[in-house]
Amino acid sequence: MPLPRRGRGSRLASTRVASTSLPRAVPVFPRRAGRRASLLSHAQRLTRRRHSSELVPAEPELRPDFRSGKWLQEPAAGDFGDLRQRLLAGMGTRHRIYDQEELVIPCASDSDSGSVDLQLSDLEYIKKEPSSTDLTVLDLEIPDFPEFSQESLTTDSLRNLTHGSPLSETSVERLVQYMQEVFGGKLKGEHEKLKFLRSMSSLSQTIVYDESTESFIHSHITDIVHILNVLVQEEPLNSLSGPVLQEILITVTELSYQDIHLLLDSEDRDDLLSLIIRIVITLPPIEALIHLHGARPSGPHNTEGLYRQTFQAFSDMLQSFVMKDPHLENFNTIFKHMEPWLQSIKDHERKRATVTMAQVLKCLYRHLSLKLPLHFQRLGHLVALMALLCGDPLKEVAEEAAEGTHYLLHITMRLKYITHDKGNHQSLKRALKKCRELLDRHSIKRFYRYPSKIAQVFEVFLSSTELCQFVMTTLDGLKNLPHPCSQQAAGELLITLVKNAESRFEKVPEIIGVICARLSVISQPKVRQQVINTVSLFISRPRYTDIVLTHLLYHPVPYDRHLAELWRTLEVELPSTTWILWRLLRKLQKCHNVPNREKMAYVAVAATDALYEVLVGNKLRAATFRLFPQLLMTLLIQIHHSIGLTMSDVSIPRGMYAEKEISTDITPLGFAMQATKTLLLRTLCWQEFNIMEKNKGWTLLKGECHLQGVFLLANALLERNHILAHRILYLLVPLLNRGNDKHKLTAAGFFVELLQSPVARRLPNMYSTVRLKDWLCHGNNVFRILALRGLYNLLRHKEMRENIKNLLPCLLDSLCEVDERIVLLTIQILQQLVQKMDFTALATMMRTLFSLFGDVRPDVHRFSMTLFGASVKCVKPTDKKGAEKQVLESLVPLLLYSQDENDAIAQESRRVLTICAQFLKWKLPREVYCQDPLYIKPAEVETICDFFGKKCQGKMNILAQTLVYSRNIKLPIRRAAVLFVGLLSKYMDHNELRITGTEWIENELRDLLQDPEPSLRLIASQALFRVQRVGELEPEQSVCWLRKLLGCLPT
Fold it and tell me: Taking CA atoms, which of 78, 138, 174, 928 is between 20 and 30 Å from 364?
């Protein structure tokens, strides 16, 4: 059954249900007749129609019809009269009615309800002149006096009381006496309850005549409230069995007109008001009530009539609170208690609350007389609730809310005029002008059809705090799961308001937090996108970007599907995309700039995951291409920081994961790797991605060989997409000295590989060779390796070689490093520079390289010989004499290392030995190039020893040099050295051996007789025998042999 409509009958007249036939009297005290007369004349002007048994016809008025969208004319007065007669048919002779101008009757017409006054001058006039509708004197005509019981009053005392007759002073005293008796006792039965309430109501009417009555009531407020509380609590919930509740509401209303508020101004009264509201609002629908109580005959207790009268009395009561409410304190209380019912999920409860609120707003508007300070600070919340109700799926609710919103707009404009900055009239004028323009385009009558227009109209008046209230309330509307259209209205309101006032919000983090919490309950894709677009609007404003990002990053990773969808579907205008992506990137970069700490910052992991989601969504594609160098380098640095870490190594904020355990499969490195791969794919670097996969580059990146993976990716970019590579090169120039060591190493690794590019020639020396020189002296070997790698790449550019030559002292020192990588890179660089060296540097380098012959590091051994051979070739003819000694000293090592078990070293030794022989202008015997081990080719060994013994005679002690290698750790070298020692002793100058003695050679050879290798022991014993034999030859034996030879000759 629909709720009562405005203009369909009187208010209190139609709500009081009589249970007695006794007439009520109007109290008149002779000693105060003058006062009564003056007050009555004013009351007649305001309320005569409410106290007449006949309805006075009113002029037809135009009003906005929020139900059909058309302008309608009120029905003729006779229609109202007929309706009223039907409503009063079962109500008895006792009734109360007040002036129609005092209370808001359902469907009452207003000549000013179709438009909004937007002139500032009119608002100023309103402030200066009190409202013509302000209630200053209350109605003094008291309806029928209630029937009293025999115990308190006799029927004789009331026998002469008729309707309109004055209430004697004696009757008032009896009323007071009766009330005092009730205060000390307990009301039993409906009859006693009704008698007390009507007595209280009648007594209240005497306040304007008798000050003692007012004093009595004020002194017993606590008792009255207590009794009302008991009566209300005794009322059954979800049922309406009698008129007691209605009488309670009417009594409270009548006292409110006398400025005695039984339900306001204290905590106990506030609780009673809340209870009354809950009882009325939660009543079952009228159909359910009729079914519950069964069919009742027409009369005072007719279920439908009782329901309508009770609800009307309830509405009247709330309206009476706001008739004199200049500070909006009472209105604030009403809204506080009505708010949850305006959001009820039950249609009949939400409908009742909306109708009541619309009537209260209209009454407040018509009796508005504001004064500072104002206690209502929830305007944004109220506007949002009414706007959401305008989009309610229940048509009746939407229509009532639209009408209430209309009056709320009137109230808002007056309120803003009172509270606006008096020194800034222009801002209010601009707001009024904008509001007028909006209303010209969108009729206020159509609020319920287009609730989003409410956001546009009210936005111009709402402060930043009220805007946040509006948004928060609208977001709460997204929880309305049973009604998809409510979610849709909330989404439209939200996006409309934020679009129009996106720069005036203050509590943005709270708004974003609620949005993130609501995403999981929004079922409609369109509404979800509207909510996400709201975040997009906030994040695209520079003043809010960091605030929004900070809040979005404060969520568990990996992001749930709702937050991931938000990141992926951010809709931002093109100029703002780069800014947003850059700010997100900066969140990650700042974590790389701090010194190494025990745990990784959580924001680094969250920002990495956010970048991945943004890249997957590909909504910021233009910004991704523009910021590709920064994105790639930052993600590579994040990979370096994440190697070997788990989530337990991350500084997770307390309460982030509650008690939920984090899966071991979730690691910071995993987020960084997936973001890097996605970046390459989204920027069309498919070939580079393929190169990384084929060469296990991703495995290198996330392991100990991280820099090798960086080198591979840099070379892939340089080969396949040189434009991007060059952009990265220019980016890295200023970044190389920033951040912690891992930051610097990753950046430097990429930088040195890009020095292969021709663009590197354009870099000033301070950014290329000077920086690499600094790294050569760095305490970290990795930096030294990177410096050498960079120098090697720069040598590709001939014009850079002269600058690199200045670094020769540092490079030569690097040959003596323990780190094999440093030595090998240095050798590679020196090979490029050897032809440009002067003899001093060349000789120094040859001595250092000679010391590396036989190095336990095979590659160092091999390439040192290679560079030595190249150095020998580069000796100028004028410098050959100075280099000859060094070359001679290298012959034996090179000869012996030709027997090395490493074929590459053996082959390189023969090659360099040939170079040295050519330098000395020797022709080596072909036996030197024998591929078989020499110890199984004694004849070839004798030929080689004969050659070198004769060539080196007088130039160097070849035997002593060979004997040194008999202690080499490698068996083939020891074996060849011992074999050469035995045979060289045969071809050397014996006189020289006898002079120096052979004991030192024999001692070395005897030690080798204990070697575990049998072949070496055998060769050592043979060599020892040969050396001993040379030492045993006497001079006489030689002379005798000579004499025998000469004797054989003919004389």
Answer: 78
